[in-house]
C-alpha cells in the first residue's frame, strides 16, 4: 500500500534554464534538483518545445533526467512551444488543472493545481503559482485565488507555493497568511531575501501550507551550481504527515 509519512517539496523559478552566465542549460537545473532530492517540485518559467532537441523540451528533459512524473501548466506560447509552470513528482499524480490568473494588459500568469496521492484515500493539493509584477495585478490575482474555486472546496490538504513576486507584505501575503501557515524566511531560511541568488535583496518565493501539515524544516538551497543556474534560488521544505 502506498503510504507516506514524510515528504520534501521545493519551489524554483528556473528562468527558462538561463543561468547568470546567460547560458541555457537544463542539465544544470536538473543537477540542482538532484542535489535537493525533493519528492514534489514546483518549477516556474519553464519552456517546452516538443519535437526539437531534448534541452528545448525543458519539462520532459528535466523530468526524465530525475526519473519523475510531471505535469505542465501552460500560461502562454513561447517560440512555438508551451511556457508556464511545471510540477515534478515522485508521488502518484491523480489529476492536474491549470487556472488562468492573467490580467488585461499584463503578461499571462497561471496556477497549476496538481492532486497527489500521499497515502491511500489521502490527497494533497499542490498549487504551483507565478503571480504578476504589478501591485494592482497581484491584488486581483490574490482575490481570484481565495474568493473563487481555486483554493476552496476540494477537500484534502493544500500546499501553495511559487514565485509570488511580492517583496513587501502586500494583499497576497496578508490574505494567504489568514488561511495558511507560512515558511518564515527569517526563522527557517536564515535570511529574508532570496532573489537574486548571488546578492539577494528581495524575497519573492514563498511556501504556504495547511495547518494539518507539520513543517519539520526548510532551507534556501545555495550550492555552487544553484548560485549560477538561475536568477532565483530554490526553497526546500520538509513536511510530516501525521496519522489521521
Write the element-wise H/E pattern from the N-terminal end onward. Answer: EHEHEEEEEHEHEHEEHE
What's the overall average pLDDT, rounded?
89
CATH fold annotation: Deoxyribonuclease I, Chain A
Proper CATH architecture: 4-Layer Sandwich
Largest sheet: 6 strands, mixed
Quickly name the level 1 CATH class. Answer: Alpha Beta
**Spatial order of the strands forming the largest sheet:** 3-4-2-1-12-11
Radius of gyration: 17 Å
- The gross shape turns out to be globular
Number of domains: 1
**Looking at this structure, what is the CATH superfamily?**
Endonuclease/exonuclease/phosphatase
**In percent, how much strand structure appears in the residues?**
35-45%
Number of discrete helical segments = 6
Determine the N-to-C terminus distance: 16 Å
Amino acid at each position: 500500500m502506498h503510504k507516506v509519512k514524510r515528504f520534501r517539496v521545493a519551489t524554483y523559478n528556473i528562468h527558462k534554464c538561463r543561468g547568470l552566465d546567460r547560458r541555457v542549460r537544463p542539465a544544470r537545473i536538473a543537477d540542482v534538483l538532484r542535489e535537493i532530492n525533493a519528492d514534489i517540485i514546483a518549477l516556474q518559467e519553464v519552456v517546452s518545445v516538443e519535437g526539437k532537441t531534448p534541452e528545448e523540451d525543458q519539462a520532459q528533459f528535466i523530468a526524465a533526467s530525475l526519473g519523475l512524473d510531471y505535469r505542465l501548466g501552460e500560461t502562454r506560447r513561447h517560440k512555438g512551444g508551451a511556457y508556464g509552470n511545471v510540477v515534478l513528482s515522485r508521488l502518484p499524480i491523480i489529476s492536474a488543472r491549470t487556472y488562468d490568473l492573467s490580467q488585461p494588459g499584463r503578461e499571462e500568469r497561471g496556477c497549476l493545481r496538481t492532486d497527489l496521492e500521499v497515502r491511500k484515500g489521502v490527497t494533497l493539493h499542490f498549487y504551483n503559482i507565478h503571480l504578476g509584477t504589478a501591485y494592482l495585478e497581484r491584488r486581483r490575482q490574490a482575490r481570484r485565488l481565495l474568493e473563487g474555486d481555486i483554493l476552496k472546496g476540494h477537500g484534502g490538504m493544500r500546499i501553495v507555493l511559487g514565485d509570488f513576486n511580492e517583496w513587501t507584505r502586500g494583499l497576497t501575503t496578508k490574505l494567504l497568511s489568514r488561511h495558511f501557515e507560512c515558511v518564515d524566511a527569517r526563522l527557517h531560511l536564515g535570511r529574508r531575501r532570496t532573489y537574486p541568488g548571488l546578492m539577494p535583496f528581495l524575497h519573492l518565493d514563498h511556501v504556504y501550507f495547511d495547518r494539518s501539515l507539520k513543517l519539520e524544516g526548510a532551507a534556501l538551497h545555495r550550492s555552487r551550481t544553484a548560485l549560477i543556474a538561475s536568477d532565483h534560488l530554490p526553497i526546500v521544505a520538509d513536511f510530516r504527515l501525521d496519522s489521521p
